[in-house]
Amino acid sequence: MRRDSSGWSTRLDEETVTRFTRSGQWTGVTLAQCARERARQEPDRLAVVDGDARLTFQQLYERGLRLASALRRAGLRPGDVISFQLPNWNEAMVLNLAAAIGGFVCNPIIPIYRDAEVGFILKSSRTRVLFVPEAFRSTDYLAMVERLRPSLPDLKEVVTVRSVRDGYACFDRWLSREVDDLIKIERSFPEVDPNAVKLLLYTSGTTGNPKGVLHTHNTLRAEIDAVVAFWRLTSKDVVLMPSPVTHITGYLYALELPFAVAMKAVLMERWDPAQGVRLIAEHGASFSIGATPFLVELVSEVERQQMALPSLRLYGSGGAPVPPEVVKRAMSVLPNCVTFRVYGSSEAPTVSLGVASGDPAERGATTDGKIANNEVRIVDSDGCDVEEGREGEILVRGPEVMVGYTDPRHTEEAFDERGFFRSGDLGFVDEHGYITISGRKKDLIIRGGENISPKEVEDVLHCHPAVVEAAVVAMPHQRLGETVCAYVVLRPGAMLELPDVVAFLENAKLARQKFPERLGVVDELPHTASGKALKHVLRARIAAESRH
Known about the structure:
5-stranded parallel sheet; 7-stranded mixed sheet; alpha/beta; about 550 residues; 28 strands
């Protein structure tokens, strides 16, 4: 284990650093270095489109320098955490770049999260500065921050984005503050260790509270380099990003990828299929990636409008179950576009990358893609490798796999003795090196690309005075892939209906996406001999009921 400047312990050791450096998979190139080169070599090239906003690479870099300088003036040191809970706004690009310049750790928080999740994340991460909108959609973020602030001793500053509010720092004012010559500011920041922690991303776990995933500059850049090579991305490509930049997908391909290949990113504040089609046509978008609902609705809108979208050449879908027929339909409606499934996670961002050049396009629908830039083992319940084509748990090792969790106990549980990450997913690999996901050992519910921990919801339900026992499982959903179903056993004489459950969870300040959409009141839950709820039985039950 290695102690990082952030204070967390990582799995890095000299042998790992040497191995991936010698192989060329860890180049040591940081986002700050890359952005600096873009600003010098292609200062006027358009980097991001965000509604009416247009920023060049030079403008982004200068804003990143200004913000890094402002954060340093606020007392931050390398290894300190800055968090942001923002929609897909260009300010997120500036924040991520400023963190890379200053050696700070960037912690994106999903905008739908509320007090329960945000409070845990800010406290666990020891966040020093938090960037939020004053309000977005129906959420008053500042009111939430004020409720949480008394329990957050490390939080030094709250900065409003796209608003001005008395008593708070303001993003635009921080950037507009008079500073010394930007060249002097640039030189005042030392080069950052590429093996230092750069990204802290919390992901739902089966144990309830989110787990903090740690990535370095090198692990993230290794992923970017791999997709650039596999998908043959160049500066002529344009990425449309509807996926939240607070997810690993949106983070990588909207906030990091554009600097690697001088690619323009077109951000969508919220997903709307008609707007998505318009933006692809208007900007010549050639590449996009998103969860199943994005792909399904994009294809339906293309059909409705009878559009061709000739510029779109790559669309990857993952983060939720992707039925083969969805990909096949996309390939039919978008004949110029290679559509494919991908497999990965916050811990191991892209284990597979779709269809390799020269391989049948059909594999994009029938498998979850060609394994790339990773070693994969498929093992049985005893941890022994199984034969080719047989199902088992997926274990992954490679240059883009996280360097650990914030909790060392979680890190120790997640890796085997050979350094392979235990994904908790089930699948098999065919003779061509393509992986197919067949199920999950873990109980996570994946709702439209959002990971939901059943235990987190169960823990709240068990606090309800009418509930004796609760079990939360995935329920099939035509648009989102999966959604939440809760089974409960009630106390004698008690009554409970779905609106009651929703109100109770609302009061607990959980994100609405975690609320059950169906409630099953049962006399008893099926159990193992040791008393554990048999969730596979409940999942099968609700799946059968959903078909009727």
